[in-house]
């Protein structure tokens, strides 16, 4: 191979390397340009708008129109058969008395039926079975609240020896809650507008809303009855009013 051919090969290698370096340079430049464009037009994201958050509360008082009461019949006997027979007989009388007062069958619900063995524990010795206790509990829903006192009198006279958890609620609570919610929102808007005026900014639209959905506690009354029941005077039961509260948090844009 002569000298001229060597020069031709060196020139060819030189041009190949030059083209390769040029392509790499252009590629790097395009990548850098794209990164600049992305950072310019995409950026870290849209900034969160300026906002203020305020609370509001509304209250509505509603006359209670539904009552609930728990009645139990507790019986004791030497045998399970004797205790259950006595218990079932008395509870049947209680239910019959409720129906006579206009309480519907669907408003009487058995919630517990338990049988417990009873033992005698001597100071020094082995325990001895003495009998059984049967406890049957029913929950009663009262629509005619004027009958509340008479219902308590009748069920105790017929064998219910434990009466408890008398409470009064509102059947259509949602309509009252909507009224309370409207009051709470109006209060929040008024508060937000005053804050915006004080800051010298424009109050924009609401962008978030939260309502505390806690359930109001019903009105409870002590209706406990001890002993064997019967012979009690008709109690004077007052159903009163229930307070329904709506608490809201609203976030507004400001400009």
From TrEMBL:
Coiled-coil annotated residue ranges, if any: none
Chain segments annotated as transmembrane: 12-33
GO aspect biological process, one term: DNA damage response
Key words of the record: Membrane, Transmembrane, Transmembrane helix
Keyword field contains Transmembrane helix: yes
Annotated Pfam families: SIMPL
Protein name (Swiss-Prot/TrEMBL): SIMPL domain-containing protein
Native source species: Candidatus Portnoybacteria bacterium CG10_big_fil_rev_8_21_14_0_10_44_7
């Amino acid at each position: 191979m002569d000298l001229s051919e060597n020069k031709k090969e060196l020139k060819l290698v030189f041009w190949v390397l030059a083209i390769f370096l040029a392509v790499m340079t252009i590629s790097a430049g395009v990548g850098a340009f794209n990164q600049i464009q992305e950072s310019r037009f995409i950026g870290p994201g849209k900034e969160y708008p300026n906002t203020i958050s305020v609370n509001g509360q509304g209250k509505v008082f509603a006359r209670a129109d539904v009552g609930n009461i728990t009645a139990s019949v507790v019986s004791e006997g030497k045998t399970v058969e004797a205790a259950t027979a006595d218990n079932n007989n008395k509870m049947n009388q209680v239910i019959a008395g409720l129906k006579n007062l206009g309480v519907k069958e669907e408003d009487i619900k058995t919630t517990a039926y338990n049988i417990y063995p009873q033992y005698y524990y001597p100071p020094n010795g082995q325990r001895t079975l003495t009998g059984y206790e049967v406890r049957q509990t029913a929950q009663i829903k009262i629509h005619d609240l004027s009958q509340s006192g008479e219902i308590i009198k009748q069920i105790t006279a017929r064998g219910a020896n434990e009466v408890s958890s008398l409470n009064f609620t509102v059947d259509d609570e949602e309509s009252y809650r909507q009224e309370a919610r409207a009051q709470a929102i109006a209060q929040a808007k008024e508060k937000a507008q005053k804050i915006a005026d004080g800051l010298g900014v424009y109050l924009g639209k609401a962008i978030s809303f939260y309502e505390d959905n806690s359930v109001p506690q019903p009105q409870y009354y002590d209706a406990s009855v001890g002993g064997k029941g019967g012979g009690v005077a008709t109690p004077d039961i007052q159903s009163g009013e229930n307070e329904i509260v709506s608490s809201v948090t609203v976030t507004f844009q400001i400009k």
